[in-house]
Amino acid sequence: MTTRATSANGGAGDDTSGLSGPNPRDELVNHLPALRAFALGLTRNSATADDLVQDAIVKAWTNIEKFQVGTNLRAWLFTILRNTYYSSLRKTRREVADVDGIFAESLSEKPAHDGRLAMADFRTAFNQLPDEQREALVLVGALGASYEEAAESCGVAVGTIKSRANRGRAKLAELMSLNEDEALELTDPATMAVVTSKPMTAR
């Protein structure tokens, strides 16, 4: 991905005089996979997710002096991406469908014995969740963020994130007509991290 970053004054965006220690810009690339997964979870469209990540990275690059070195860079980036998404959503007032199903497939590739129908059911159910529940499940379930980190990224209380994640898991199970035993049996670890309360280990 080509970064379009420029500084606020139109320069190359390399002014780091307000920063001490390692330059956080050097770490941005390390968080691209997680940002793209989060963007896919929000937008449900691969091309839109790529644009969202690019916009978020540009904003982070040009506002890097606002980042407090020593704090959670990933949570800061998630916040920028989330705010960018909702700002865009307010402007367009419409949601984009997961036309190619890329996010759902990246979240979970079902074992062959489950068949395509089960994966389609999961994708359909996941896409029916409200934005706030979907983002909580992506952050806590798929990306392995702690509840505290997810709460920081979304600007809400930890209890709110827990509630959103629990409601999202319950709704998924309801939509897929799964009980607890079936959820554990019919899903691989990635999907199980979303449907159950056990997050995957962060990569």
Question: What would you note in describing this structure?
Answer:
By secondary structure, the chain is mostly helical. The protein has a domain of 87 residues: Winged helix-like DNA-binding domain superfamily/Winged helix DNA-binding domain (Arc Repressor Mutant, subunit A, Orthogonal Bundle). The protein is built from 10 helices and no strands. Helix 3 crosses helix 7. The radius of gyration is 18 Å and the shape is globular. The two termini are 21 Å apart.
Topology (elements, then pairings):
Blueprint: H1 32-43, H2 46-62, H3 73-92, H4 102-107, H5 115-128, H6 131-142, H7 147-154, H8 158-175, H9 180-186, H10 189-195
Helix pairs in contact: 1-2, 1-3, 1-6, 2-3, 3-7, 6-8, 6-10, 7-8
Give a concise summary.
The chain has helices at 32-43, 46-62, 73-92, 102-107, 115-128, 131-142, 147-154, 158-175, 180-186, 189-195. The protein is an all-alpha fold.
